[in-house]
């Protein structure tokens, strides 16, 4: 086992690509960028919102995009869509938006089809079949008649977007989405209640004579003020155990007592702030004195049937998850160690020595997991058995307590009007304590819009202002039907009525600012799904530009 | 007929022509549309590209923009009006001409310079000010300027300030009605405190790769190059810092010093992506549209957007701070240990996120505590730095602080702890 810290690879000045994408590589790294560059995004509907989403994906350099749209550019499009100009009027919208979007980044390959979703589903189904299509992600812009929504493929991540007046919604669908790099605030796991022998040995070595005054041959003030706080805590926890029949300070009041015990050991006659390490130790008590527990999110991953029943077709994620589970089961329930340590007051060598104890343990845990992975892959005759990537396993182990697995309800289930889980979710939101101001009403109003459009082939309010009242009555009728279908019997509430008026007011039209905002929200979520980093919404986010707020629902 | 009645503006016109259920009762659509056209607006900052596009496509016809930066290659991943061939040109002029050529019938007037170059008369011409600035200093300046411009007898002197900022997947937008609602200064304490690493850590006991980079830039560069200033944008300089930092890291067995980290530390780089900028700029311009037209109620007064774990927004009313040095009237209390030296007092003030000073000059009613310049005054007052606070000021005494980073004079009541 290599015990020296990994040496910094001699990295020279950045490439021109690294310079251009520097501000985003700091978020998702080369790993995320590679995934982004493999993506081919299909946009159905060159609306203002659709083009804004693509803009925010082309700039960070997705691999390819294809705009699919069957309309000709109208004068009115120029008032909302920045990726059309005066010369575009009368020409195919797919072609013109693809051309102007393509100018944004020469690294991205753009294309277009003058076509629509309905026609492609019936005439060129291979373009939407996950086994044959080149598209890796679908962006579908509303309006789309409900029967078409019910036919969307379930093998490709799909983003269904509404941008109407001041309101926007995004519905995400993805096949099971697993995430290693969730980017939590901190990966630090100190294991203060569960030290391993090497760590305990370091504590003994570095805290010898800690409490002996310098005049009696103990540590000098300088040494005393530079013992890393992690070692202080571990040392005093041992002392505490001696005084308390081997018990650790677990309750709030015990921790408070423990704090004052540490405080009493601080040297008070030293000038200045040289006992900051003790202050850091006291500050860390409440947060860090605990058993190393497995997060509920990671438990969900480890108990997932995909983890329990791995096969030769399982994704690497699930094989590694299974190995981590086996490791944990045979390791007193402790996950592989993350190996991360916070900065703390210490001398350089003292800090590095401590850091190395954590790193070495993390390496050896990851190596043990790798052995199990190798064993499973061989036994299963897994196609990746000769390409096991130690870096991925280390990354996985580092994030073992922060894994995520998201299961998305299909869009067809949501719009079928017969899915119990969907109905329950809507009903719960409508009956929740905050229902009066909830953005669930925005969603319900847009369900009315969806049904109105499906029945009439046009948007409510897309008419002279005098006829809006009739459209309002009609869309309200659709909403009543929808509410009944989910089992809600209290009728259309005040906020919902207002939202319906707002929907009719827009008449199916976009506002550029709302479209642009939708473009930002959707692109963030697409990037999270593509890079498999950070945690995307499951499954609906509503933005209300009237009250300037969002809400998420699993619908 | 307003210009907005032309076919190009069909959708915006429709929304504005129909009174919405959330709008004020006295909403008058024809008046509001005309108002929109005559609303002179001002935008600036790193969100500038998005802001200009959004304003142009929201019916604003007379837009002014200020930006002191030139285009850098690292802007191209998000500032979508710029191409590789534009690198080195002023952002304001390139952005203005791009948007004007794309959207017919609007005027954008660019100014290549600092917002501080312009005086109150200049800012008085606008109805709304939108800022997506990335520096705390510039935001404090525009905020203080707009608060100072408010004349109780002239309602038009109150200019709504819409402020937006982003970091990674997070951002915030807010509406400030100078003197009426919480201002930028009122919320400075929401910024993360800048905990500077003690010099002795850098000098003797580095532990983190960033400590090695700071050692190279703060201590080693001036030692070797004396008066020559470190230029963070000069690749040669950055390379030198990187090599020194790497050497030091190896000496102390510290891993993780890379060129990218070196750049990040010395330039204080904040990650930025197109999508977050789009969200925040659009939110700001949505508020501008609502303020200008009354088509819907505008934000009261703060929205925080967090996109790294699911999507979460916190929309709330940030309260005015009683002792706000800009929009409040009184000096605020400040706890001081009487045993501190003046230097220690200054060091602690520098760490306070709600103060944010770099090179303060300090006076009380009865004495000059410390002057940065001119040289004679600096020399006269320098001995005070090692004196104890209790020997310089009385409990309850007011200290006035001026600083290049402060657009106003900060007043603190010293309270001895």
UniProtKB/TrEMBL annotation, chain A:
Record keyword Translocase present: no
Entry keywords, A to Z: Ubl conjugation pathway
GO biological process: protein neddylation
Pathway membership, UniProt: Protein modification; protein neddylation
Function according to Swiss-Prot or TrEMBL: Regulatory subunit of the dimeric UBA3-ULA1 E1 enzyme.
Protein name: NEDD8-activating enzyme E1 regulatory subunit
GO molecular function, one term: NEDD8 activating enzyme activity
Gene3D superfamilies hit by this protein: NAD(P)-binding Rossmann-like Domain (3.40.50.720)
Ranges of biased composition (kind: Low complexity): 1-15
Cellular component GO terms held in the UniProt record: cytoplasm
The family this protein is said to belong to: Belongs to the ubiquitin-activating E1 family. ULA1 subfamily.
Domain THIF-type NAD/FAD binding fold: 21-108
Organism in which the protein naturally occurs: Choiromyces venosus 120613-1
Region (Disordered): 1-22
UniProtKB/TrEMBL annotation, chain B:
GO molecular function terms listed in the Swiss-Prot or TrEMBL record: ATP binding; NEDD8 activating enzyme activity
Single Gene Ontology BP annotation: protein neddylation
SUPFAM superfamilies per UniProt: Activating enzymes of the ubiquitin-like proteins (SSF69572)
SMART domains: E2_bind
InterPro entries: E2-binding (IPR014929), ThiF/MoeB/HesA (IPR045886), ThiF_NAD_FAD-bd (IPR000594), Ub_act_enz_dom_a_sf (IPR023318), Uba3_N (IPR030468), Ubiquitin-activating_enz (IPR035985)
Keywords, in A-Z order: ATP-binding, Ligase, Nucleotide-binding, Ubl conjugation pathway
Keyword ATP-binding carried by entry: yes
Annotated EC: 6.2.1.64
Pathway entry: Protein modification; protein neddylation
E2 binding domain boundaries: 334-417
Top-tier EC class: ligase
TM stretches of this protein: none
Pfam families in the record: E2_bind, ThiF
Record GO cellular component, one term: nucleus
Catalytic activity of the protein: ATP + [NEDD8 protein] + [E1 NEDD8-activating enzyme]-L-cysteine = AMP + diphosphate + [E1 NEDD8-activating enzyme]-S-[NEDD8 protein]-yl-L-cysteine
Entry keyword Ligase: yes
Family: Belongs to the ubiquitin-activating E1 family. UBA3 subfamily.
Function: Catalytic subunit of the dimeric E1 enzyme, which activates NEDD8.
The protein's name in its UniProt record: NEDD8-activating enzyme E1 catalytic subunit
Taxonomic source organism: Choiromyces venosus 120613-1
């Amino acid at each position: 086992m290599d015990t020296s810290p990994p040496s910094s690879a001699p990295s020279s000045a950045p490439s021109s690509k690294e310079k251009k994408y520097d501000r985003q590589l700091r978020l998702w790294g080369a790993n995320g960028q590679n995934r982004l560059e493999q993506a081919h995004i299909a946009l159905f509907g060159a609306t203002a919102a659709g083009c804004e989403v693509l803009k925010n994906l082309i700039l960070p350099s997705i691999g390819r995009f294809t705009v699919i749209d069957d309309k000709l550019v109208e004068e009115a499009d120029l008032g909302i869509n920045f990726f059309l100009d005066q010369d575009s009027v009368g020409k195919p919208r797919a072609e013109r938006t693809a051309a102007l979007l393509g100018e944004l980044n020469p690294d991205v390959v753009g294309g277009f089809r003058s076509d629509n979703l309905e026609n492609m589903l019936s005439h060129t189904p291979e373009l939407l079949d996950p086994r044959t299509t080149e598209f890796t992600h679908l962006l579908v812009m509303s309006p789309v008649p409900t029967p078409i929504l019910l036919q969307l493929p379930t093998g490709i991540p799909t983003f269904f977007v509404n941008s109407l007046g001041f309101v926007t919604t995004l519905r995400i669908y993805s096949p099971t989405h697993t995430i290693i790099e969730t980017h939590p605030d901190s990966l630090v796991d100190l294991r203060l209640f569960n030290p391993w022998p090497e760590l305990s040995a370091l504590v003994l070595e570095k805290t010898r004579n800690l409490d002996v005054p310098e005049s009696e041959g103990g540590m000098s003030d300088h040494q005393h003020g530079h013992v890393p706080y992690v070692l202080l805590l571990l040392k005093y926890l041992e002392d505490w155990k001696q005084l308390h029949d081997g018990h650790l300070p677990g309750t709030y009041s015990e921790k408070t007592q423990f704090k004052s015990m540490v405080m009493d050991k601080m040297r008070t006659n030293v000038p200045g702030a040289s006992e900051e390490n003790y202050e850091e130790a006291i500050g860390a008590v409440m947060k860090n004195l605990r058993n190393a527990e497995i997060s509920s999110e990671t438990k969900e991953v480890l108990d997932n049937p995909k983890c329990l029943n791995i096969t030769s077709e399982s994704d690497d994620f699930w094989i590694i998850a299974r190995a981590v589970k086996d490791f944990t089961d045979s390791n007193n329930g402790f996950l592989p160690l993350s190996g991360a340590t916070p900065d703390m007051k210490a001398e350089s060598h003292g800090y590095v020595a401590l850091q190395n104890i954590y790193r070495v343990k993390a390496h050896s845990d990851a190596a043990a997991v790798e052995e199990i992975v190798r064993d499973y892959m061989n036994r299963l005759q897994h196609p990746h058995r000769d390409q096991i990537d130690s870096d991925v396993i280390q990354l996985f182990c580092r994030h073992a307590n922060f894994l995520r697995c998201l299961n998305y309800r299909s869009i067809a289930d949501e719009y079928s009007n017969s899915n119990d889980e969907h109905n329950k979710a809507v009903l719960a939101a409508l009956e929740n304590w905050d229902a009066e101001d909830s953005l669930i009403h925005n969603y319900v109003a847009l369900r009315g819009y969806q049904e109105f459009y499906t029945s009439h082939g046009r948007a409510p309010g897309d008419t002279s202002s005098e006829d809006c009242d009739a459209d309002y009555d009609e869309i309200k009728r659709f909403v009543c039907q929808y509410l009944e279908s989910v089992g809600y019997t209290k009728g259309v509430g005040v906020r919902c009525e207002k939202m319906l008026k707002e929907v009719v007011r827009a008449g199916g039209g976009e506002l550029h600012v709302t479209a642009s905002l939708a473009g930002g929200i959707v692109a963030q979520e697409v990037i999270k799904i593509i890079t498999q980093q950070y945690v995307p919404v499951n499954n609906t986010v509503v933005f209300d530009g009237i009250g300037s707020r969002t809400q998420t629902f699993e619908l | 007929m307003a210009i907005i009645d032309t076919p190009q503006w069909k959708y915006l016109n429709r929304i504005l022509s129909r009174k919405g259920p959330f709008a004020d009762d006295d909403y008058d659509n024809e008046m509001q549309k005309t108002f929109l056209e005559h609303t002179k607006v001002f935008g600036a900052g790193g969100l500038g590209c998005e802001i200009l596009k959004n304003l142009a496509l929201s019916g604003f016809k007379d837009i002014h923009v200020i930006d002191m930066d030139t285009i850098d290659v690292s802007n191209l991943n998000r500032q979508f009006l710029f191409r590789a061939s534009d690198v080195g040109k002023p952002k304001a002029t390139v952005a203005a001409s791009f948007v004007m050529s794309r959207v017919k019938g609007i005027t954008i007037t660019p100014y290549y310079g600092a917002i501080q170059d312009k005086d109150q008369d200049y800012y008085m011409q606008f109805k709304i000010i939108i800022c997506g600035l990335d520096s705390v200093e510039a935001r404090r300046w525009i905020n203080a300027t707009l608060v100072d411009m408010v004349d109780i007898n002239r309602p038009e002197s109150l200019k709504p300030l819409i402020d937006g900022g982003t970091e990674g997947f997070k951002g915030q937008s807010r509406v400030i009605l100078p003197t009426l609602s919480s201002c930028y200064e009122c919320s400075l304490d929401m910024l993360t405190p800048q905990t500077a690493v003690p010099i002795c850590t850098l000098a003797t006991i580095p532990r983190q790769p960033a400590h090695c980079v700071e050692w190279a830039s703060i201590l080693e560069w001036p030692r070797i190059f004396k008066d020559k200033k470190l230029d963070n944008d000069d690749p040669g300089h950055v390379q030198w810092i990187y090599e020194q930092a790497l050497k030091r890291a190896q000496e102390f067995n510290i891993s993780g010093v890379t060129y990218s980290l070196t750049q990040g530390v010395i330039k204080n780089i904040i990650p930025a992506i197109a999508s977050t900028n789009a969200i925040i700029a659009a939110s700001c311009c949505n508020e501008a549209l609502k303020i200008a037209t009354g088509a819907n109620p505008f934000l009261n007064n703060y929205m925080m957007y967090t996109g790294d774990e699911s999507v979460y927004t916190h929309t709330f009313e940030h309260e005015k701070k009683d002792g706000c040095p800009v929009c409040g009237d009184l000096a605020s209390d400040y706890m001081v240990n009487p045993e501190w030296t003046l230097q220690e007092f200054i060091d602690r003030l520098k760490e306070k996120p709600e103060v944010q000073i770099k090179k303060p000059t300090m006076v009380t009613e009865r004495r000059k505590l410390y002057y940065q310049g001119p040289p004679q005054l600096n020399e006269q007052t320098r001995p005070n730095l090692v004196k104890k606070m209790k020997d310089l000021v009385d409990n309850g005494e007011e200290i006035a602080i001026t600083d290049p980073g402060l657009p106003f004079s900060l007043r603190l009541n010293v309270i001895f702890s």
